[in-house]
Amino acid sequence: MSSRWFTLDRLIALVILIIALAYINASFNIRMLPFELRQPFKPNTYPLAIGTLTAIIAFFVTVMPPAAADPTIAKSGGDTEGWREFDWLRFAIFFVLMIVYATFLRAGGFIPSTIIFLFLGSLVLGERRVWISLPIIAVLTVGLWYLVTQVLGIYMPAWPSGFAVPFGQSAQVFNAAAPLVMGA
Amino acid sequence: MLEGLMTGLAAALSLKAIAMVVIGCLIGTFIGMLPGLGPMSIIAIMIPFAVSLGDPTTSLIMLAGVYYGAVFGGSTSSILINAPGVPSTVATSFDGYPLARAGKAGKALTIAAVSSFAGGTIGAILLTMFAGPLAEFAKTFWSAEYFALMVAGLTAIAAFAGRGQVLKAILMVLVGLMLATVGQGALFNQARFTMGVADLESGVGFVTLIMALFALPEALFLVLNPKKGQQEGDGQDKEIKDLRITKEEARKIAPVIGRQSIVGFLIGVMPGAGATIASFIGYATERNLASPEEREQFGKGSVKGLSAPETANNAASTGSFVPMLTLGIPGSGTTAILLGALIALGVTPGPALIDKNPEIFWGVIISMYLGNVVLLVLNLPLIPYIAKLLTVPRAYLIPFVLFFSLMGAYIGQNNVTELYLMIGLAAVATLLRFADYPLPPIIIGFILGVMLEDNLGRSLRKFRDLDWMYERPVTLGLLIVAVLFVLVPLASDWRARMGRAKETAQGD
To answer: For B330-367, what is each residue's pLDDT tens digit?
Structure first.
């Protein structure tokens, strides 16, 4: 077998095969109530069926010879062509940024963390005119905070806890008034 | 049906609903024009807003408006900058972009808009005619038929996946089905497959999954490949001036519109085959039907070549609502998302929808007529101005798309674990795209998974054995269709693989 045999899609199929086997194993370990054990349709009946099917098909994809490419259907819109020249560093930075943002979203307060996230994102993407980007992002973030908390009604502290600002208090007043306004 | 139509008219013509159609169409057109963002991402981002409207009818009307607005907007970026934001408008750029380069951008946009309008409206008429009877027929279905119908719907995805993709598409469907079993189901008391993570007990959020599969990878691909979707060549001289088309051109595209709206609609109705396939088939058919001298023009700026995919993809988008509204089966990734939104709003999809929620069923259909008019009358004249916004700097666009994706997932589940899950799934989705695995089947499997297990369970409890699979004629018929959906393309796939294996063996 040449090295071409082990392509990315086969590797993924192999990973799915392993996941399917773990899934089947987990299906056997679902704890069931005594009456459920006597049912024809148990909590693990369906998982066992789809898990087994997944394992079989993943196995076939792993071992099948390469497919003849179909020229009539564009390969994922040509997204992956020239991947060697792609900017993988920026890609990785964005993943780190997202994880850090997710972690500090609540503890750090919505407004500071969002401003920092959007600002660093624009910086990484080449916006160097900080004096322009920072005010735009700050204004938009406050607008987004209003949208998320007031329009969509999601609880989201604006600032880090213990950080008293008039803005946060006015938000509480607003929250108390919101049902009245909406109900009218 | 008349009564239903009246209910629909009342629902769709309320001030709020009209406002939502207009807003949905405008937002859809605008975001659809931004290269790299397809309808699925746009709808996903809009779901939290739609849910906040509270009323399922207006929510779905708005989301549907966003959908066809996005298809419309996608064709604009295909024509103007040769950057199709969505696969379904790739064929539009074949002749649309040459026309724009030849200084006829305005004409091209008008042809696209008129074709979209005609395709969408004729599609809506067909939908109005067929949705009712089909839903009535589907009302005779029991859980056994449902189960078989869902299996057929899921395997149809494989049938249209394209050569070499059949098994991969099935594999993706199965991954979606497995993801749907995570957490607490309606059927059993215990949460399954949570791996001890408490936040997973409510299952994988549906918005989380869409964001991870579509919105995030699309935005991240723009980060990865700075060249993607950039303006080609000069670009600057394409001032949009003359929006008029001549009588001669109108006469040329009329039969194309007539044919492609019907064919496109029928392709759209089939589960698994959607707007993209309809647009390519439409383009190829019209090319073959054209006279030799007209055929020469295809690819160089043929008005027929532009009209065909535009009519077909809009008719197909409308057609894909047929299985969604009447059977509760999503035929495409986009309708799967709309269906998920409906479930999130507390509405049970399926044949009962027409009786239980006639205002949703007919309201959405009626709103489509309105939406198509909005696109034609409101958006077409606005396009030169909206097109200027195509230059939104990416340094702002991408972080904001990521923000909306993260926020959408957070809003859906209200916990941070969901965000980590989404970021992880987005990494997986990006990898899957590199390996050429189709992603929409995952979401279709995910949406259908719960209903599939539910109906299988009911059938097994009711009939005890597996006899129902062959004793009930409709069930048996559908299951046979499902098997054929897999076996036929697989057989041709296998032949192609073997042929190629032989070739390479000889070649090496």
So the answer is: 878 888 888 888 888 888 888 888 888 888 888 888 88
In this prediction the ipTM stands at 0.80
**Does B505 have pLDDT greater than 70?**
no
For chain B, how many structural domains are there in total? 1
Is residue B505 in some structural domain? no
Residue B315 lies in a domain: yes
Domain interval for residue B488 = 2-498
Could you tell me which chain B residue has the CA closest to the CA of A43? B188
Confidence at B171, pLDDT banded by 50, 70, 90: very high
For residue B252, is it within any domain? yes
Q: Which residue has the tokens 């322009």?
A: A132
Q: Is residue B355 part of a domain?
A: yes
- DSSP line for B393-458: -HHHHHHHHHHHHHHHHHHHH-SHHHHHHHHHHHHHHHHHHHTT--SHHHHHHHHHHHHHHHHHHH
Indicate yes or no: CB of A41 within 8 angstroms of CB of B416.
Answer: no
Question: How far is it, in rounded angstroms, from Cα B457 to Cα B63?
Answer: 32
What number of H helices and E strands is found in chain A?
Answer: 7, 0
List Cβ neighbours of A136 (8 Å cut-off, separation of 6 or more). Answer: B396
Contact (CB<8Å) A33/B461: no
Task: List the 164-203 stretch of B: residues with Cβ below 8 A of A.
Answer: 164-165, 167-168, 170-171, 174-175, 177-178, 181, 187-190, 192-193
pLDDT tens-place string over residues A131-154: 888 998 999 999 888 888 877 777
| pLDDT tens per residue across span A56-95 | 999 988 887 665 444 434 444 455 666 777 888 888 999 9
CA distances from A59 to A51, B165, B186, B437, B502 (A): 12, 15, 32, 15, 22
